[in-house]
Specification:
364 residues, mainly alpha
């Protein structure tokens, strides 16, 4: 057997062990929440479906509706946990493959080494990959469930030494209990705005790590083949039909589209506020040690004159930290835009607020 076969066998064994681990914890949840009878029924149904389909069908036909609903939930929860485990292990396999063979971007860059540099630069300038979220409200899982499954995945992803296993199993058990106690079905039919919030969950996950990692890797690999990614390009953007899909859906009205746009704008601003707050913490660069361009200083001065909302305290404490003070101005512009959206008022004239440098532009 080759080393690759050995690795595949080890990976499969680890996957089965983790699925069995979560299955055992789910069994304990069923006993805690519903009593041992439900777990016994689950195990009996699982055994009969493998050994005697007719007997399993007969057993299910005689099961009361309430018990049948719990039975369905038990199996659906198990499959949720199994799917999460498979995703975690699939991620590990992909990382191992990238480590051994190089990532897709690295392999693509290798193939571009002999390409015409001018043609490559022009192509990169116009590069735009745009995944689109389609509109399928009936398939929208509740974020309450998604968040708990995400926490379970994070716990599975964490390397654990044996002395800590009990503590991690306790955290897993707590989250499995919460999954069981959470109604996976919505009380009312989901509306387009609910689906938009569901899509935002995935966008948050992407923006928190994956998008930044991809863009950093793309920049590095292009530089490796002698091409600089222009600062004003947007090689990766996202689109969505949600709230705007009028293909036979009478529930999607112009007002719904407007409401979804406002929802997405406000959420995007909140995400940007979190990012700019983190950036302000980093940008302690003193002008005495790093200097600053005239463009930045002029832009900063114009912003300070036209943003009376900026606290004098920031102007005093960050007087020699122009990057941090500029980030504070950008933050205030985001707050102004958020307030304007909430009130439904028009934007101020563009001339009243200077635009920040192109690397950090935002709406006033």
């Amino acid at each position: 057997m080759s080393s690759a076969d050995d690795q595949a066998t080890t990976t499969n064994n680890e996957l089965r062990a983790d699925i069995r681990r979560l299955g055992d914890l789910l069994g304990e949840t069923l006993v805690r929440q519903e009593g041992p009878e439900l777990l016994e029924l689950v195990e009996k149904v699982r055994r009969l479906t493998r050994e005697d389909g007719e007997a399993a069908a007969e057993l299910l036909r005689g099961t009361e509706l309430e018990t049948a609903a719990k039975l369905v939930r038990a199996f659906s929860t198990y499959f949720h946990l199994a799917n999460v485990t498979e995703q975690v292990h699939r991620g590990r396999e992909l990382r191992a493959r990238r480590a051994a063979e190089g990532g897709l971007l690295a392999r693509t860059a290798d193939r571009l080494k002999d390409a015409d540099p001018d043609h490559l630069r022009e192509t990169v300038k116009n590069l735009n990959v745009r995944p689109v979220f389609t509109a399928h409200p009936t398939e929208a899982a509740r974020r309450s469930v998604l968040n708990k499954l995400r926490r379970i995945a994070a716990l599975l992803e964490t390397p654990v030494i044996e002395s800590d296993r009990r503590r991690y199993d306790t955290r897993l058990a707590e989250n499995i209990d919460l999954v069981w106690q959470t109604d996976e079905l919505r009380v009312v039919r989901p509306e387009p705005a609910d689906e938009a919030r569901n899509a935002i969950y995935y966008l948050d996950e992407l923006h928190a790590g994956a998008v930044g990692d991809v863009l950093e890797d793309l920049t590095a690999e292009l530089e490796r083949v002698g091409v600089k990614l222009p600062d004003d390009t947007r090689p990766l953007t996202f689109g969505t039909w949600i709230g705007g899909d009028r293909d036979g859906n009478p529930n999607v009205t112009p007002q719904v589209t407007w409401d979804v746009l406002i929802l997405q704008h406000e959420h995007g601003i909140n995400d940007a506020l979190e990012t700019i707050d983190e950036l302000r913490g980093f940008l302690s660069n003193s002008i005495r040690y790093t200097g600053a361009t005239e463009e930045l200083l002029e832009s900063l001065q114009a912003d300070l004159e036209r943003l009376p909302e900026i606290s004098p305290r920031y102007k005093r404490l960050n007087a020699e930290e122009p990057y941090r003070l500029k980030a504070t101005c950008i933050r205030q512009k985001l707050e102004n835009t958020k307030s304007r959206l909430a009130k439904g008022t028009r934007t101020r004239t563009a001339a009243t607020i200077s635009a920040p440098p192109s690397c950090c532009a935002t709406s006033p």
